[in-house]
Amino acid sequence: MRYNFDEIVDRKNTDSHRWNLVNKLWKDKDGLPLSTADMDFKSPIEIIQAIKDRADHGIFGYAFIPDSYYEAVINWVKSRHNWEIKREWLICTSGVVFALNTAIVTFTNPEDSILIQTPVYPPFFSIIKNNNRNLIENQLIYKDGRYTIDFDILEKQLSSGVKMIILCSPHNPVGRVWSYEELKTVGELCIKYNVLMVSDEIHSDIVYSKIKHTPLSSISEEIANNSITCISPTKTFNIPGVGISTAIIPNKKLRDEYNKTLIKMAANGTHNIFSILASEIAYRHGAEWLDQLLPYLESNANLMEMYIRENIPAIKFSKPEGTYLGWLDCRQLGIEHENLRDYFVLRAKVELQDGRLFGSNGLGFLRFNFATPRSVVKEALERIKASL
Q: Which of the chain's termini has less CB crowding within 10 Å, N or C?
């Protein structure tokens, strides 16, 4: 089947977190909200049909997670990332942020230090602070449009009593897909200083030409025994509203402790029947859709890179290695950094995500969600240019 990613699907008045902003921000309702990270493409037809068929049954009783769900996860991870995982390693949860939060509650205590690499996904900050943990920022190094890790600084921080590191791999918002060598170095440092690794790999299926995602726990048995990997089909197949994820925990001791926390929170029982169904169908039948989506997204990123370079040179943008998120360096525009988002909301009628939400080193940056039809990407870029 050939999918049409150029199709405009009207998402206004659907309780969309992003598109309902149209009613709030613009009186004439002609703005373009491109902030929150979901896509403007219909999910694979197999998912849509499976949900319709299940709804037509008319009874929505309590449901368990079938073995076929776990088999689908195992087969997907093997086929897409060449990582062989075992059924007993897998724990189904209601979402990646919930899975990360469960790890914090399980393996750290109040006032313990948890390290994150900024700029990074905003909920990383809240789940640490809301659990009364001490947040340590390992700021990524930004040079020539590319972010890297300063391993000397990282080692110094890890050696100071940090209990946990939460990785974002691929990294939201900067678009890095951490290499095998980078992850191996992080993993070895964490083993050296007895720091537990928790890896958010929700974007792992969205990587571009000649780039390979390396699951953290696949690197070595030692790293696997000191890590928790969190994956989900929700970003990949545009089903974040169904809410589901899988925590992959090879270490039995860690896995048992994690399960104990879920039991304490009464979060180990019934799961949403549509979440389970949509996820299994996505993993079993979504490869063709994804294989068509990825080059489309990459072409959107290429368009952004070329257009910005040729028409808005004061904005610096490098095509991401993964994710469908563009990280725009707007520091040379001459606009007060604190007013960047509002400037484009008012002048361009384009809403991008304020970089300050991603950490102090996000000041002067904006995040642009390009998982939308190409005509929308073009229109947004033209509006931004005209506003300057």
A: N
